[in-house]
Amino acid sequence: MTLTPQQFDDLVSLYAEKLVDGMDMKTMEQFVYDTIVHNVECMSEGDLINEVANYFDDELPEMIKSIGADPDTIL
Question: Which domain holds residue 57?
Answer without folding.
Answer: 24-74
